[in-house]
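Example record

Each entry pairs one chain with its bound ligand, 4'-deoxy-4'-aminopyridoxal-5'-phosphate.
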Amino acid sequence: MSPVSIPPPQCLKKRMVVPQRYMFGPGPSNVPPRILEAGANPVIGHMHPETFEIMSQIKSGIQYMFQTQNRTSFAVSGTGHTAMECAIFNTVEPGENVLVGVNGIWGERAADMAQRIEATYCYCSCCVVRLQALSKHRPVLFFLAHGESSTGVLHPLDGIGDLCHKYGCLFLVDCVASIGGAPVYMDQQGIDILYTGSQKVLNAPPGTAPISFSERACQKVFNRRTKPVSFFLDLSWLANYWGCDDKPQRIYHHTGPVTAFYSLRESLAVLADEGLENSWERHQKVAEYFHTGLESLGLKLFVKEKRARLPTVTTIVSPPGYDWKEITSYIMKKHNLEISGGLGPSLGLVLRVGLMGFNSSEANVDMVLEALRDALQHCHRSKV
Ligand code: PMP
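Structure tokens for the complex follow.
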């Protein structure tokens, strides 16, 4: 009797086919040829000197992108969620309090993560509640999403870091949807932990997540009473693997995704070539051009206050009388273009369009506007 009873699957005998598609949802965004080609370089060892050199270039790129001098700046192997857990699992111990700013889904997820490590959490929705909560609950960590991709809100960051520090609290900011598209100054704004993902403005494939810890954050992490719940995300291991500590030797922790590092390195090089200020300005200009075009189509923007609009991901009030799912499917089928519906609290309420990194251009805005105009003409509309 043959020991192999499950035959090779027929589906694996066919060639894999992946379509070209316009990726104008909230992420991932399209990967330009320069970054794709970087990822096609040969695999070498994750502990080889050449890989360490590339990792060191990534660290410098992250310091530039985040505007920080923190030496504990590196990329987590994983997506934005991995970095989010890395931040929370390292800085918070069981029984401690976490304060979570809520302006969409990401605060809810941060609260869920805190709960899993037996920390307590409370929410705040505005400055006054935040101040009360900081003095009353004495949280060790305050979480805020700078760019809330579910609602399309850009949250101001100035002044919050100083306030947190006054109450002995670390300031954690999620800039997955905003970095490179809107200004963030990690050191000047007193942000203690900042993270993002590779697949949005950076236009690299998903799978690596830049993160940085301030000295204040490192002090808290390295003086814990308990070990962080995750071995994989333990900052002392990761800091050593990325050469951020004083140890003479780097010790094997996990096999770094080397080809993903090549792509990330190149995406940071593209951002450095353009310059942060130019990139922020381009995203803002293109977003305003897009918003004007949407209004001339008769569509409404979900975020009323102009200053609070995220320039990378636009939320459009779901057109009354239409089924948002029919609109997104129509546009995908007819225009080969991804836009998406809402997420969490915005589900059913909005359409979301992401124009990030090299996707952020007036030509792409025209393409999305044309697709929307066509969908509004051809999708079923009920009387409202
Ligand atoms: N935070 C924000 C603001 C996001 O937009 C996303 C991705 N949509 C995440 C966190 C999670 O990132 P990932 O999907 O890469 O885990």
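The longest strand covers residues 72-77.
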